[in-house]
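seq as requested:
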Amino acid sequence: MAEAQAFRWWHRGDLDGFFGLFVDNLIQLILIVQLCTFVLGMPADLVYGRILPGVAVSLLLGNLFYAWQARRLHERTGRPATALPYGVNTISLFAFVLFVMLPVVKTTGDAALAWQMGLAACLGSGLIELGGAWIAARVKRITPRAALLATLAGIALTFISMDFAFRIFADPLIGFAPLALILMRYVGGMRLPFDMPAGLAAVLLGTLLAWGLGRMDGEALAAAASISLHPPVPAIGDMLGAFSSTQWLAFLSVILPMGLFNLVGSLQNLESAEAAGDEYPVKSSLAVNGIGTIAAACFGSCFPTTIYIGHPAWKRMGAGSGYSVANGIAVTLLCCLGLVGLVSALIPIEAGAAILLWIGMVIAAQAFEDTDRTHAPAVVIGLIPAMAAWGLMMLENGLRAAGQSIGSIGEQAFATILPISGMLSLERGFIFTSMLLGAMTACLIDRHYRAAAGWAGFAALCSATGIIHGYSITPQAIVNAYGPMAAWPFTVGYLVSALLFLFLGGYAGKRPVQSDD
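struct tokens:
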């Protein structure tokens, strides 16, 4: 039996883990500033004085808890444990900006009211996450691991790895050298000179190359160099002010699926951590995630938090609890001292892109490595909805750059080149669809036909409500459509599938099993 190791707050791997998580969170902070300033037209004192300090409160709270949780796990098992990575939920960030706050700005021109509605939406998401913590453990027990990990693998390949691969290959003079360091260290197992952590080396080298090749803006750095103190200020009164009218009810169609989306995504990340060797309690882990989102709303942030994808990668780096504490402190300093602009002007995103590309690679590989090899088809089918969602995002971005949208062009324009309705249907609620398809397939592989029928029946229920597959095309954007008629063909299709699984599976169960060889 291996000898128990004493807990330490800091390991060499924590430095690499910090840089990976910090770059990820920095991207979210930059997105918040840009979207709130240029899309919503919010004044700087609201963005820097209220919203970012609220983000700091939520991230510090969560990072400290998950660091403490990792310490408890280490002390209980005697084995090093890696804290769950934690940060702002990117998908909720875009959803709340585009589908909650932007409509308020367009109809009223009041950025402050839009902020209040954003706070109400964030509170609603947090309450859903907190309440769901008490039922999520059962969901985790009955859901095949392949179904949970396949969803993460799809997101890792598309929304993480592809995005940062594009950044690297867009400027290989900056991107390739940091990527080489990461691959040598974490794929090839090679130690760098002076045992320098690969994450630190990649960020330093990428930053030096970017400045040396003239890719960075010295004037922007000088303009962002000022420091101003912005302590967190409670915003409970502003948050409750959003409920003084019934306008917030119109946004329940965004708040509810985003809260469920966040809950399921965090649950899948807990499964990923368990597969990597760190089994954390479901209830407390998800409850604190919900509390972090509620704290964000109470202190002025409109953006829910989440347990991040990537735990296995940080564990392979050798990170423990220290990287989580360091990230919480660093983000708090950035937000409360007004330094987000300074860091973004100093360090190019490309400098940390290689770390995040590698994290996506590890998550995708884990879906195949840590599930039964016979469940590989379940993993593959679970990848497809995320690929559809990413492909749709690329298509919409391209059309938007040309001043067009799917709504302005019309579905028929794609008829001969792309079955756009299928892509749209897969994209709506893709996290749920991925899990449902993966679960059905895994159950069929194991010849658990009744369980497969149960998952198909649940998919029929989800499509009947519009949580999955329901969409409506407007000139501005693709929006969710809810109600029993929104996606009724899918409801019928899933019910037919459930009947086939149940009755033909029962017939097959009476016959001797034949080998496929």
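The chain has a mean pLDDT of 85.
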